[in-house]
Amino acid sequence: MEKNDKSMITKAIGHVSFVMRKCLFSILSIGPVPAHIAFIMDGNRRYAKRHALHQDSTNPGSGHRVGFKCLISTLQYCYEMGVKYVTVYAFSIDNFKRDPQEVQSLMDLMKEKIDELLTEDSVLKKFDARINFWGDLQLLSEPVRLTAKKAMDMTVHNKGPVLSVCVAYTSTNEITHAIEASVREKQENAPIEVSDLDRNMNTAGCLEPDIIIRTSGETRLSNFLLWQSDFAHLQNPNPLWPEFSLRHLVWAVLEYQNVHGYLKKRKGEIEKNK
């Protein structure tokens, strides 16, 4: 009986929270709602140290586990708000330079969490979302690479919003591959146009990000979406990624709405002068 009572209370709280978010997002929708938000999920390891989580050699990914819970909540809020595209920077090519045991632990965690995203009660299932993995996937361990491919294949026909995970990724690597692909397509001595590179980017067919958020107060893009970010509103809130919450997301959208007119005007002026 006690368990049933707790379950009913939890469901009731969840329903009230959903109704309150729905009202909040309805008010936000009076202004322009971003179609694409990208996140640099910075601060997982610092969060683990700050909160004295178990961060030893047997479990170096403890902060990332908390960060994954934050990702799921943030995805739900974005999709409820009407954001069509969410892109996250999960693992840089440079991260392979870390301690091999830590890298292996993160690969294992990545596979586990991709599998979780494919379960019946996952946020992807709830919103009929499609998932992409962008990066040099050949650098991933085979189990992670196969799981990522399985996830893309299983969601490729979904009609809802899109989650793109940048893994084994840097923007310079993406641009290099786009140049190489464009050269292969062209006849000898034919010029390569910007449109050729756009077509061969991982992000082809996806809207450019309206907002790029890097948590933990850092202001660097760290080789993330450099090609696609010329008109993105860059934000660097102080919370570490596992601390990022609904109020931070709402504030980010309000800041974007405050500068949207200026960004739209500047983009129009530049495109007009091309």
Automatic annotation (TrEMBL):
GO biological process, one term: polyprenol biosynthetic process
Gene3D superfamilies attached to this UniProt entry: Decaprenyl diphosphate synthase-like (3.40.1180.10)
InterPro entries registered for this protein in UniProt: UPP_synth-like, UPP_synth-like_CS, UPP_synth-like_sf
Coiled-coil residues: none
Keywords carried by this UniProt record: Transferase
Entry GO MF terms: ditrans,polycis-polyprenyl diphosphate synthase [(2E,6E)-farnesyl diphosphate specific] activity
EC number per UniProt: 2.5.1.-
GO cellular component terms given for this protein: endoplasmic reticulum
Keyword Transmembrane: no
PANTHER family: DEHYDRODOLICHYL DIPHOSPHATE SYNTHASE COMPLEX SUBUNIT DHDDS, DEHYDRODOLICHYL DIPHOSPHATE SYNTHASE FAMILY MEMBER
Similarity comment: Belongs to the UPP synthase family.
Annotated protein name in UniProt: Alkyl transferase
